[in-house]
Request: fold
Amino acid sequence: MKRATVLDELANAAVRRAEELRSSTNLDLLYQEALLFEKRDFAEALRRPGLSVISEIKHASPSAGFIREADPAQWGVRYKSEGASCLSVLTEPERFEGSLEDLEAARDNTTLPVLRKDFTVDEAQVLETGKKADAVLLIAALFDAAALARYISLAVEVGLTPLVEIHDEEEANLALESGARVLGVNNRDLRDFTVDLGTFERLAPKLAGATLVAESGVKSPEDGRRLRDAGADAVLVGEAAMRDPGLVAQLAALA
Reply:
């Protein structure tokens, strides 16, 4: 019997949360709220000259364990002052200790576009994101082509930027075929949580025309420069920025 990966466990937990959301929510009303929620342009913020920085607010992760206590409102303001172009906020409650309250607190106290970082496995979760954030994470490994295309379409319909995360060439092809225009290349393999910056370097040449975000493993300005030179429009920095917020300013200063 195949052993469940960390991604499998996170996705299964997300399915349970999605079932609770569906059972407790009027989806028609949720759709209308998502439509009416005024969005900030996440994708445009990534296309500005220089290397854009998506700075992440998270308290813990499966790979690092507990990182630090952090007030999301204060950290959003701090990241903006350091030169971040966008925020990413973990809302996964079990392994990352995040919440929708963290998301709202961060967004309410800054003008930056905000990505909801979670394991989206149900259209109801896209709608829920649409009334609280500006972008939604869609992990390609959790979808087939038809489902991913449907989720991308729904996200765009309610004004969200779908950031489609990939890790290998098969997922890259799936994302492009499904209409993804903003792609996050995760240098971390979510099956075993190993990190290799070469993942971005190998995949970027196959992704011409897309806005590219390099995710995971960025710990220094040298890492940022390496990924920028490989074609990254932006880097997403999580644990390293939580431990040293000054890294954000160093990365944002890269021309």
The longest helix spans residues 6-24. Strands lie at 52-57, 60-61, 65-66, 86-90, 114-117, 135-139, 161-166, 182-186, 211-215, 234-237. The mean pLDDT is 93. The two ends are 50 Å apart (CA to CA).
